[in-house]
Batch of 4 targets.
Target 1
Amino acid sequence: MGVFRENPVLNIEGFRVALPEVLLLLKTQAAKERWNAEKGVKDRADIISSLSFVDIKYDLRCDLFPGDYPKKALLGTILRTLRESRVDYEFLGLNYSKGGVKLKKLVEKEIGLTSG
């Protein structure tokens, strides 16, 4: 069966492209594992960029994974990235106090941590 329950790619103009949610999940796992490493900065910047500029379905497509996939841990890493990664926003040319706080609140709302 492989890692995924269903095909995690789209066919766009003859190219096989991974679903944005799958890329986000993979980047999130990498960020979790490399949080204090130099590559962790790039992983966190990719997470912020994906959430800022790509139409992500906030169920994070964890239904693609079999069994007891650690959805809570991945969501925790995403939220930690949004809460703690001020330098990573600057790496993207973004301002945390302008867009980051708004993005954090949106993601928290979408995954059910806050209401309204």
Target 2
Amino acid sequence: MTQQQAAAALEEYRAERGPALRRLRSWLEAQGAAPGDQLDGTPESTAPLRDRITARITALGTDPRTLDTDPTRSRWPSWARHGKLVDPHPPEESLLLADGFCADLPERHPALVERLVDALCERDGVVSVHRYGPAALVVGVPEWDEVRLKPWLSLWLERNPPH
């Protein structure tokens, strides 16, 4: 990806944060949950929301279509469209739920993002971490590929819940 493409992808991602959070709120309402209770900004609301989303994603399983034949791909969040997903891949609903959860975390828990930045800066191989607003980090880690960075981030979030 060129610098210009990366800049465009970052702007696209940032523009998606508001709609992602609105989709999550709508999904919670459709489930009969009060979004205000699930997205109240407290650390105590994060675990039940994560559990609710994880249960739904688990129930959805994987999409039976291949990436090449999935007609929903153009509606996926930009990080999923530009990322390196492989078959079997998650269905669109799973990607949108994960996107909504990721949109909520930095907005409601900015201190968590600061702790994440600090942890990333301490890792061997990380050469830069730039924060673009509350919802986007650009991590310069030339020796890691996306397959290594994403699991590290997932494990870190699981081990470091907001407080």
Target 3
Amino acid sequence: MAKSLAFGEKANQLRFMPTFEHELFFYFLLMSPSYQLAHKLKRKKILKGIEIPKDFDKVKKTYELIGDIYSATFEDWWQGGGYKLFEYQTKVKKLAISVDLSKPQIETLKEIQATIKNAYDSNKNLKSNQKISFVKNKLHYSSLNDRKNFLINKAVANFKLGKEVEHWRVAVKSRVLSKWIEGLTFDSKPTQENLKARVALGELSSKLLKEGWFLSENAARLDFPSCQPNSNAMPFDFIQLKDVMFNYGALEIKMLERYKGQPDLLIRDQYLLNIKRHFRKKRRIEKVVDKAVDEAVTKALKKEKEEQVKLAQRHFSSSRR
């Protein structure tokens, strides 16, 4: 019997090879204050002084669909059934059908008809079966990862130092994609020489913080990846985020211990290798672009200065006449 390449095989490949977008979705959901509120309410915790978002029904629906993500790593969650939430996100457009000519023609035609009918029926039922689909936009993995790392590092740094850490230091710690981090370290002392870099990183950090917040809160409403402002977003709690991430780190250690004797069963090492290669290539390209821009600006400024000198010389010569 002929088979569609989209049936079965796609779900199987997706199960064992998630994309980085799936993992980022999981992380931003972990960080979402709204999703954690849904988790606490589901566990019948009594909460005082909490203002429920107006669109909290959306968050509750997300929680009903995905459930408790605080007691498992992404790896365990995915292999334990998380992959099922992302199956069949696109319609079957083409069928590859092999025909067994040794069978009677009537029987073969019936099989082909049945295969085509199954494909059309599957496309019709796609909407009702589909559970989670990501927003198609220009947000890149590296941009999402920068925002994720910034939020986590901000929470951890605040806790370790026992105070509100300057945003530029967190940006340096997170190694965000910016030329301004060059020459700075987390422990750098503020000086007149690094003032421009600190100001630039501070402005970038404010943007990362706000967009990371909206990414997490929008993820709780199954609108991911999206940095669009959300008036119903709950305030970020870095103490709570620190607790969540410390707990996640403990779960990771236990998971790696379980896989110690069978490292080949870990799926993340397989897809993260491709991600790392992509990030390294992207960073190299951005450094080349930054260098080219700097050189072009320097050249333009030099030319402008030369023109000003020439103009001044002509003015001086004419005035002496």
Target 4
Amino acid sequence: MTSLTASQAWAQAQSNAQPRYAIVETGLLSDESRMRFLKSDFSRYSIMRQNEFAELREYGPWLVDVSPLTFDEFSTHELFSNRQALMGWISSDCPGDQLNEHLSDALLAKNEVEEVLLIRSYAPEVLPLLHARPDLPWHPWLFGPLKDSTTGNASRAAATNSCRSIIPSPSTPSFGRLWSWTHWPITL
């Protein structure tokens, strides 16, 4: 974990030429704000890219490339001013499409009885719980491509691996790569 503020982590990522991406959950926006977001010029990817989620895409989480913005511009931009919908931002060496694929796969998990669950792995209340479990086998896979993760005013060093070192998960069912919560005492 790092003690950098969000603005310091942004400046550090920017000086290292690392792309920065916001995660916005558009279902938490008003209809007008959601349409403005979907029509914006920002490069963005629906994190719910699986065919099974086609009807939810417009309302689900989106990965948005905010690299061209300074921290102050990002913090005050009308598309990112809804703090309920803005889940936070991350920096990564991964190109947006590869990072999005990874985050999309991270939406799914199996519980101890092998049921497939949809989880909000990107959410500020969930991400710290996941990060706090480096003892579990899915941890390097999940955090491999992330450099920093910020939620609210906190900044967390998520990992130091580059995009090239993403560790594939053990299985690839029709929903995509899954990781298991076996032996995890927290119910999400």
